[in-house]
Amino acid sequence: MNYNTYGREVKPPLTFRVHDRWHGGLADFPNPWHRPNGGPSQQEINVRTLLISLVLMSGSAMACGDLLNHSLRPLAGKTAETLCSRFEGKVLLIVNTASKCGFTPQYEGLEALHEKYREQGFSVVGFPSNDFMGQEPGSEADIKEFCTLTYGVKFPMYEKTAVKGAQAHPLYKQLTQATGSAPGWNFHKYLIDRSGKVVNNFGSRTKPDDKAMVAEIEALIAEKPKSVKQAIEEKPASSP
User: Fold this and answer.
1) Rounded to an integer, what is the distance from CA 186 to the centroid of its chain?
2) What is the enclosing helix (H) or strand (E) of 113?
3) What are 94's strand-pairing partners?
4) pLDDT for 137-159, tens place per residue?
5) Considering the entire predicted model, what is its pTM?
6) Which of 64, 84, 101, 147 is catalytic?
């Protein structure tokens, strides 16, 4: 038993409260040190404590997954940022773009898609690439000006990026490995859920307003991100 300075027995609380960074506010967790009627063994307490610590310390990694733990510069920017820091918990449509391609007018539809669902936790993310017939030859400043003035693009875009073959950026290597499909041309699309998992990909000919793709986006948007507490409770129990 534990006693305070007044000689009174101090019992551990049934729960303790931590900040839930995904949903905001506070969340209550069972106290692993509380042992009614003998309670769990010391080994079980240690496992629970370690699990909670790991979950809280790796909240971003759990929310984003490995896929978004890459640092890239915003288009024509100077300072790189991690994709996780910007898109944690969001549904994403990742697209490799080009300014001098037959599919370039898709910029307009992509911006409309982004604008329609952005307040619901969705974002189109563009990666200009010169990998296909040199159809993105300009500087990043040129690309940014073209997209903004010609198509009113406001969705996030990042530095010029290699998207195929041995020179592909690690992000695109992961996208290719996860789907078995590398971009075959400009405006290939990868759909990412709120946990950072690739769930589908669509070829260049799939338009931004394609009914099947939009329906899948809407379904993923409807799946709200899990809280830290839910993630812990759903974690499989460790073997003794």
Assistant:
1) 23
2) helix 106-117
3) 125, 190
4) 999 999 999 999 999 999 999 99
5) 0.73
6) 101
